Amino acid sequence: MILKRFKVENFRSISNSGWIENDNVTALVGVNEAGKSNLLLALWKLNPATGGEVNKLEDIPRSKYSEWRDLEKQKTFITCEFNLTDSTLIQKLIELTGCREEDVKVAEVTRDFNGRRTVGFPNYEKIDVFDSMVIENILTSYKSEFLGLNEKGKSENGLKDKISAAYSSSELMLSQKDRIDDKELKEISKNFEIPIKELQKSEIQPHLKRLQGEFKQLLAKSQQPSPSSFQEARNLIVRHMPKFVYYSNYGNLDSEIYLPHVIDNMKRDDLSSAMQAKVRTLKVLFEFVNLDPDEILELGAEIKLDQYQKERPLTEEEVNSIAEKKAERDVLLQSAGLRLTKEFRMWWKQGDYKFRFQADGRHFKIWVSDEKRPEEIALEGRSTGLQWFLSFYLIFLVESKDTHENAILLLDEAGVSLHPLAQKDLASFFENLSMSNQLIYTTHSPFLVDTNSVDQVKVVYLDEGGKTVASNDLRAVEAQTSKNNSVYAVHAALGLSISDVLLQGCKIIIVEGPSDQYYLNGIKTYLIRKEVFHPKEELIFIPSGGVKGIRALSSLLSGKDEALPFVLLDSDSSGKGQKSSLLKDLYKDFPSRIIEIDEIVQLERAEVEDLIPVSLIERYVFKLSKGVDEEFIDSYDKTKALLPQIENYFNKNDISLEKGWKVDLARSMKKNILNPRQAINIDKKTEDYWINLFSRFES
C-alpha cells in the first residue's frame, strides 16, 4: 500500500491542514513553529510501529479540551488515502465484497481521539439513480431488433402486441424524467416479464431474456453494498496498512564506547529517550560491520582470577591464547573498518573518510582520517555534521532492512547540524532510501529540497489565525498570510535564492507559474532520457508568479549575468502584452530570449498545456468529470487552444474545480511524461515541438 495523501484535523495547533499529496519522498517546508512536527505526529499516530499512543491531553487542541475530552463519538484527527498495489490483496477484497477492482483499489483510513479507526473506499459510488437516456438507448437498440422478429406458433399469437405495449409504456415513463431511481427501473423491467410458453424455435423469447438480463445487471449495481460494510474487508486493510516510523532524535555515536555498558544497555528497557537513541545507533553499528560486542569484549579479556577472585599470573598457554584472540580481534576490527569506509563513501561526498575501529580492553574506539587530515582523530573530534550523518546513515541503512519493512518513515528536522553541501547529499540519500520506503521529512532549509523535484515540496505555514496550514500550492502562503518570514522560507526551499541558483552555473528560464515549471521539468527529463537533447548547462525553470513579476525577476537575475534570462510566455493577451512591454526596453537587444508558445505549436492563444498531448490530459479531465454524459474528447477542437476548452467543458457541465487544479494537472502530467507506460501516448509531432523549444533555450 502506498500513501497517496493525508489530512490532519483538530490536532494540537492544526485546525485543518487540507489534503497533502505524497510522493516517494515528500518535503514539508516551513519556518520553525509552523506546525510541521504536528503533521508528522498526527500521521505517526494513525498506525505507529512503536509508541505513538493517542493522548487526549496532549493531542486535543487546548481550546477544545474541556468540550471534547468526554465525547462518546470522538473527533477524527487524521485521514489517509492509500493506493493498493498488492494484486493479491485487491483480489481478496473483490472476492469478499463482490465489487469491481476500481471500487477497492483506494482505501481511506481515519483515527479519532479514542483510538478508533474507520476504513472506507472513496472510489466506490453507490448507483441508485440512472440516466433516463442510457435506459432509453438500451430500449431503442433492442426495439429495432424486435421489429424484425416473427411470432412462432399459436402460443405466440399476439405476443408482439404485448411487447410493443411494454416498449411504449417504458418509453413514456423515461420521457417524463431525466433520471429514474432503482424502483422505477424495476417497474420498466416488470413490463417485459410477460408469461409465455417455452418454444424451442422462438425468436422472441431469446430477445426478451437478453433484455431482462440488461435490466438485471443494472439493478445488481444498485443493490451492491459498499465494500466498507464488510468487516473482513476492513480488517484486511488495517492488517496490510503500512506502519509509521517517527524519528526526531538520531543518537550521535561517541568516539569511545565502554563495552560492558553497551552490552548492559542493550538488554534494558528503562532508558531515557536520548540514551535509547544512542543505544540503537550502537546496535546497528555492530550489526552493520558484523561485530558482536560480547565477542569483542571476550577476545580482549586478559585478566585471569584465582579461586579467591584475585588476579593471578598467566600461564604461557594462556598468554599464547590471548595473543591469538587479540590477533583475531584486530583482523575483525580491520575488516569492519574497511567495510564501513567503502560503504560510507557512496553517500558522504564532503570528504574521503577512512574509519578504523580499535578495541582496548573493555573500550571500543572509532578513529577517523581523510586526505586533508591524514592523522587519525577520534570521531568526537570531527564535525558534528559528520557524526550526525554517520549515525543517521547506519540507522536507516540497517534498520530499513528489518524494522522498516512495509513502513513509512517520518523524519523530523533531519540534518539540521549539517553543512549546506552535506544537506544536499542528505537529500540524495533520501531519494535512495525511498526506493524501499516512502519518506516524509520536515525542514526549514532550502538545501534539503531537490529543486529538480519541486512537486515533492509542500509548504507549511501559520495562517492569520495562528493555525497550521499545509498546501501543495507553493505560493499559497503569499496569498493567505502577511508574514514575510514564511514567504522567505518557501522561496528559499524552492531554490529561488538567486545566489544559490547562479552558483551552480545554470541557465535560467523564467516561466509564468509553477504549472509551467512542472511541465517543462518533465519534458526536459524525457528528452534527455531519449538522448534527443543534450544540454550544455543545467536548465532551471523559475516561476515569476504571473506575467507582472517577470520584469522584476529578469532585472534581478541579469545583474549577475551578462545576458538576460530566457522568458517563456503564454500566447494569450496578457502574455503578448508583457512581451511588447519587455521589448521596448529591457529586452530591446535580446528579442530572441523571449519565446511565445504559439511560435512552437502554431496555435492562436496557445499556452504551455498545448505542448502536452491531449490523450494524456484527457485522462485527468475524465477523472474530474465522472457522471457526465458527454466526454471532453468528443467536443475537443484541435485547432483551438486546449485550456479554454477544458474550462468551458467544466462550466458547461456545472463542475466546480478546486483552486489550484491547474497545478495538480501539471503535476499529474509530469508523472505521466516520465512514466514509460504513459509516455507511449507522446507522438512524434509532440516530441518535435519539445525538441524545437529546448533547442531555442540552447541558442
Plain-language structure description:
The protein is of the alpha/beta class. The protein has 29 helices and 22 strands. Strands 1, 2, 3, 5, 6 and 7 form a 6-stranded antiparallel sheet that branches. α6 (132-146) packs antiparallel against α7 (159-175), α8 (182-191) runs antiparallel to α9 (204-223) and α11 runs antiparallel to α13 (293-299). Mean pLDDT is 81; it is low at 303-309, 482-490 and 493-503.
Short description:
Helices cover about 45% and strands about 15% of the residues. By secondary structure, it is an alpha/beta fold.
User: In terms of structural class, how would the helical and strand content be classed?
Assistant: alpha/beta
| Low-pLDDT stretches | 303-309, 482-490, 493-503
Largest sheet properties: 6 strands, antiparallel
Helix content: 40-55%
Count of strand segments = 22
Q: Radius of gyration, Cα only, in angstroms?
A: 33 Å
Distance between the termini: 46 Å
* Total number of helices: 29
Shape: globular
> Mean pLDDT across all residues, rounded?
81
Strand fraction equals 15-25%
Instruction: Give the quaternary arrangement of the chains.
Output: single chain
